[in-house]
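Request:
Um, any thoughts?
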Amino acid sequence: MPGKRLEPGSVRGGTKGSSRAAAASRGPKGGARGDRVLLEAADDGTGFDASADSGKDLGLGVMRYRAGLFGGELRVKSAPGKGTQVICSVPMST
């Protein structure tokens, strides 16, 4: 989508949510891989059953929606007691 920008608040919202939910001890990181921008937020907190994620959770749902606006995707890896990793991948040009 021409003229669209990924706002810092989109990333901040995801990292703030994971920190609040699971006492995160790792911060967000990002970079480029090929023609995509990757943003990652991870923690070593309590985690949750990611296989039970129906996609209807408000926080994750909004993050998926925002990634989709830019032709991107959101991946969530988590398990109880194992922490959580959220990776957002968007194309450099839309």
